[in-house]
Queue: 3 jobs
Job 1
Amino acid sequence: MPRLRLLSASLCAALATLVVAAPIAAQTTGNRLPDIGSSAGQMLNPKQQEAYGAMTLSQLRHYGYVLEDPLLEDWLQSVGHRLAANSDRPRQQFTFFLLKDRQINAFATLGGYIATNAGLVLAASREDQVASVLSHEIAHVTQDHVLRGVERAQKDSVPILLAMLGAIMVAQKAGGNSSDDATMAALSAGQALMYQRQINYTRDNEAEADRVGMQTLARSGYDPNAMAEFFTTLQGWVRVNQGGEKERTPDYLQTHPITVTRISEAKERAAQMKPQNSFAAGGASANPLLPSNLRLPDQGLTPAGTGVFGYAKERLRVLSADTPAQAIREYEQMTNKAPLDDSQRYGLALARLLSNQPSAAMAELAPLIERHPGDLWLQLAMGEAESHAGKHAEADKRFQALLDRMPRNRPVALTYAQVLAERGDAASGKRAQSVLRPLAASASDDPTYQETFGRASDLAGDPVRAGEAHAEAEYLNGRPERALMQLENLKKRGDLDYYARARIDARIAAITPTVLELRRQGVKDEVLQD
């Protein structure tokens, strides 16, 4: 984790500034990179932009920066998609994802891909503040700031980023302290220029992103005051935390400079607004079938907010900690200052569960479930704790009740399937397969699903399905050459039926151009080259 945090700020800034630099974009655009023209409107079409955004996500997964968790992903997507539906481009596709790093940062890339660091969520005191940052990043996409930034930086950034990525891979092979030193040396040459270009770009567009983002925030029913509120929090963070690397200026402020004037303007805009509820948020004002002058009373409209921010923040605290034991120590320190609230007790229970203390986790969760009997987050944690404690019948009963209530709920299905796979027997593997199959149609781009289904299929004695799922997970995690190799080996099996062979042939045909393009540009899989 320390090395991860060391690298992520520089690499993510580089990827955010120019995602067209890496070659994996060819995965959906043929075996040649698009020809970048001279104007933002003609440089990349929407399909190409989406391909580059997907490439960025897969590469961040490849280097282990992405925090993959079904509950947190569903929470972030719920917030992000509500905002996107109320943006200036409601038809624009957006993908929101979390990074493990505890530095405060967020950025947008081409294709509507928006990353949020764990540290930014941990710094927020309420969901509206996180929503204010997401709405700002959404505005960078809808106002074409990202696309123009790519055009502006393309000449210098391509060689810089490719050199940085290559040097990082070489440095990591060295191992030990020399690896860290070599990695930092490789990054230092390009980091300053990448940051400067990003800062120049954001200073020219921050005012517009603030204004448009605040409109999106208000239309979504969130508190528009949250933007200035969070700006003030970040500014206070800089005043209090001065010194070494861990206390340096948050990455978000290096690419999104905050001034007193900017905070004042945000406060003034918020004073002229109040949370609204548009058609996407459950209201009537944007419904084309209703009279334009019709206004429904506020109390009759759906309020903004998922209602689970506290749980999401504490789950993120635990999953972004270096170890579960460190997370437990954080909660012990918090207890010394004030009694833990219910969300924090949930986080402590999760940390104990991940520390292989299921009985202690169950003891923490039991009173919470008494107070909140139908809460999904608590029920899933209790089911996991029961299973880890050997109480399989109780866990199965709890998970089955959740499945009956929410048969296609992704966190429920994935959590239960992962619990079943941990038991390691064929019956559990087959049961996990049946739990996951209802999600198959929507899971083609979900690496967590593919990894879990692959493990379940292994246990169930279904090697063909397992091989296909493992190959797909490799591809989605930025390792297309390994995916291709697995599929080629799978194709050699003598027990393939016609349909399995057709599926495998189709995926080989789709993945091969990506691998050829990578080889043409000299990018090789570091594991396969060992």
Job 2
Amino acid sequence: MRHGGQILVDALRLNGVTRVFSVPGESYLAVLDGLHASGIQNVVCRHEGGAAMMAEAHGKLTGQPGICMVTRGPGATNASAGVHVARQDSTPMILFVGQIARADRDREAFQEVDYRAMFGPLAKWVAEIDQTERIPEYLARAFQIATTGRPGPVVLALPEDMISARADVPDLAPARPLLGDVAPDAVRAIAEALAGAQRPLVVPGGSLWSQQAADDLARFAANWGLPVAVPFRRQGHMDNRLPEYVGDLGVGMNPALGAALERADCILSLGSRLGDTLTRGYELMNPTRPHARVIHVHPSPDEIGRLWRPDPGLAADPRRVVAALADQPAPRRWDEWTASLRAAYEGWQQLRTTPGAVRMEQVIRWLSDNLPDDAVLTNGAGNYASFLHRYYRFRRYGTQLAPTSGSMGYGLPAAIAAKLQHPDRVVVCLAGDGCIQMTVNELSTAAQHDAQVIVIVANNGQYGTIRMHQERNYPGRVSGTALFNPDFAALARAYGGHGEVVDTDADFAPAFQRARASGRLSVIELRLDQQALTPGATLDETRAAGLAAAGRG
């Protein structure tokens, strides 16, 4: 006889779980008891939102569900931010939520929430386990759903009396991956459709990817002379140094690449949903007036035909499809088209000088030139990230952890998860002063678990992205975007870490080297000029453009 918490933890262990991220609560004490001496690391976090984002980042890194455990009510609502990231990023994740006792349902008991209603739009599956004997069944289903088709988050509620009750129930075998063979006829159909294009574009996206898939894509693109453009924050899907890589389609994209998407007559989507960010709000590709043939490969049949008429469409693992395509003989080549797009990318890579003594473009270029190929970079949301997208060259899969949902506060939790998973790698979090303060309390988690991340804070004293939109739409009418900031370097030292402030470009490299050598959690604060609003325009230029637009109106 085992209590439900032990049954659940044994199921986690059988499914290969070695680490969970949690904020403890009295509603799931039996699970915490099951974790005791289980061999599964319990990373105790400071806020449920940070815990859920760490679990989501773990899922991104490993391809296996990241596990998060939180208490009922406020704990669950706090964790919902990470569930939303997992949903939009197609990341496997399982969130366990403590729940009130079964006998108290529908009385608005202390912290009672209907989790099916709350998480229904966010998760792939939401359930509440009513019987202790059925825990292995629910766990098996949760792992299967989280990892198959389009991966995503699952939420399981655990009534406290159910999880503390005892039962004699056998464990179930761990979930197994589905058979993923791709029929030769399907591969030939894709090749033939692609062969008829004049200006094709390959778009590899989604979360079902690997370093082997990146290598197969490189071989396929080189053999066929095809241009490859990745979706927003999927830059690690292909080595950016290769001549067939032509940039990223997303926020702050190269205008020349956006124009190429408009001109392309055939899009080979390998796992991407081809959504609004990639198409600039469906301006560059319009589902109601399609201009290009779409060859759509996606792991979920529900996504094929949702926006674009597939011609052809294939519900399959994109990793297997790109491997098969790499072995296909090239019916023709598109070297000239690809070279022109690569030249536009190289031009976009040329540094554009921004105001100030510390310039983000110089920082990012130094990181790109000096970090190891397997270094992991994380970020949340903000204009500072557009410098990273534009000037950093990712070389390997799994080195970019960033939310396609645009969630602020993601970078630090993600960096902690990455460092715990890969303690031998350099892990760098880039964050704005507003972004970092969403989850800055997780510096305590990093210190407690010896996650030696290096955090680079881009401090310009404002919510820069919102200020940019303000100046474009209501120029000169600043409201709600100014920030009061702490001494971020001193904050790192308060947690026993290493902290420095950088005031000039020349100071950055030695500061980073000292941070890396310290062997501790580190924060490097960059004191930026407020005029350095974006890689392409100063604050004054943005305001002037807004005033000009208002005048035309």
Job 3
Amino acid sequence: MAQNIIQGRVTDTANNTGIAFADVYFPQLDKGTITDENGNFTIDKLPNGTYKFVCSIMGYESYSEDLTIPFNTPISITLKASAIEMEEIIVSTPFHKLQRDNVMKVEHANVSELKSAGAVTLADGISNIAGVENISTGVSIGKPVIRGLSSNRVLVYTQGVRLENQQFGDEHGLGINDAGIESVEVIKGPASLLYGSDALGGVLYLNPEKFAQQDESHGDVSGTYYSNTLGYSTNAGFKTSGNNFKFLIRGSLAEHSDYDTEDYRVTNTRFREQDLKAGLGYQGTHFKTELRYNVNASKLGLPEDIGIQSTQKTPLLPYQQINNHVLSSKSNIFFKDSSLDINLGFLYNDRKEFEEHHHHDHDDEDEHDDHEDDHDHDHDDEAEHDEHEEDEELHPALHMKLKTFNYDVKYHMPTFGKFETIVGVQGMHQVNTNYGEETLIPNATTNDIGVLATSHIHFETIDVQLGARFDNRTIATETDLNRSFNSFNGAAGFKANIFKNTSLRLNVATGFRAPNLAELTSDGSHEGTNRYEIGNPDLNNEQNIQTDLALEFKNDHFEVFANGFYNKVNNYIYLSPNGEFINDDPVYLYLQDDAALYGGEFGLHIHPHPLDWLHFESSFETVTGKQDNGGYLPLIPANTLKNTVRVEFENNTFKKAFAFIKLNSVFDQNHVSENETTTPAYNLLSAGVGSNFKVLHNMLSLNVTGTNLTNKTYISHLSRLKPDGIYNIGRNVAVTVKYTL
């Protein structure tokens, strides 16, 4: 069979000189290369058809066009120098376009950038993305919040499949390690058209690291030390690609003590996490596939009050022990003018929670104030705990196994005039089984199926995207609860360049969320919640409609953006106390009421020419959530103003060097739900420096970042330790060394 080959050259618009080491890439085909020292490139083994073709390199505007293969003449690409950050292909939307060509506004961030800002975990790092926060329990447990919505209202995708790990629980974290995650994309708003139930509030899409280019091999090892927790994270990886087959593997280990504040260490916020990711790929001319596997084993302390003051790293009781497995396959079949994408996933979440049954009767109300006087006693308690740890009779109070199979099949139809169209089917089969002394949610089976169609229409001055979808979810439990939920959803949007350098996006979309098992069936107390929850088996779908308006201006020196949204949620599910007590815990019922959220993100980025190495960025984020009955929604992030000054430079010694200083100003949050505490304003100062160096013919990267440099004592409004008045993490200095082989 004849092989299609394209050849070309990438040059600088200003002087027509070749640009070396530029990436030239077909994202849908996952094939590409880099230019040689003269800017020339060759890519072979390409199938017939029309595919997005991208060229990018730091310091230049990214180039993108639809290229029809076979293409028999050399390609000439000219790139314009730019201080604007290099654009990436957006994977979480189905048409795989650069952000500037996307109808829907999607936030994109490289994990390396989030880590260089001082993030301890991935959940911590995503809070640096505009419109995204996380509900935290210490530093080890974090749940993503997108424009005020979280838990089962935000869907997480990893390795191309939806992550299912009992995310309904207040103290059930993200459960994904940042090692082997290349970038993060965030869809802010209902994405049920693309993803079905639970994407009512948005999607956090985690892109795994890419395989090596053909006939290349790479390896790296890195480590980070954190001064606050006396903790560390390490990871090492290797990847290689031959003519058809590709392979990668990456392992990591992280371990932390209780985090420190100016006044005390927060007892039992310690944790340990082990992670392994591996991938195997095959690439032919008309078919490519990849198989990825991730196992994450974590042991996470569950803090309750300020007690033992130590730097031990073994969690005390209560703690979680979680093993999470993600096995996924992603295949693409290329026909003459169309293609078929098949994503399959199997996820196995084994969650155990160990509780202290015999040591809760001692009086510890004064530990918060008197812990300095009790260190000897605390160390005795910890020694007792260590002996308990060795007790083979320790059984989990809560033990749940969640097994999920999901599938996602999309057919990219032949392009018809100005129309790109995709039709697809998605579904899920899920089984939850209990093995522990406690039953938080019953044994149950959940089945989903959804069908969708979406089109991207290219006109001369505007781009339009339309779509519709139908979903059905059934939930059957061993307690005789059998419910079926249906929903029809749609989305419409357009993007236009209304003035020179100015773009406007308007999107209207609907979404839905079926009630989860906890909301339908809860009947009991659970460690850490301090309440007795009673479910409501008659709950209906949450259904929403959101309008997004995004305005953006860019030139060589200045960028400004304004993103506004209004999100109307019908049948919003919430917890409310009924005034009764069971086993000394207040009783909370699951109720429904209509609600609305509104706000947005606004900001600017100044990079004055010829001082292209200097960057000033400022952004403001706000969201308000209210029920129709007049009450405010819980866990709504406080308004935040972020200001950053960053310099970037490069010479013969320093490669990709940077330095930054950042001030986060968080405002008062007085708009709170019933029985929720308010939080005062605070300012957090951070700074960092980093660079790459050539050492023994390979690249060594060194980054030093300090967060909360003034050691401010503060409480985040989204901290689950807030009701007990426990501070968030104090000053932390992170030192990262990475060596690329």
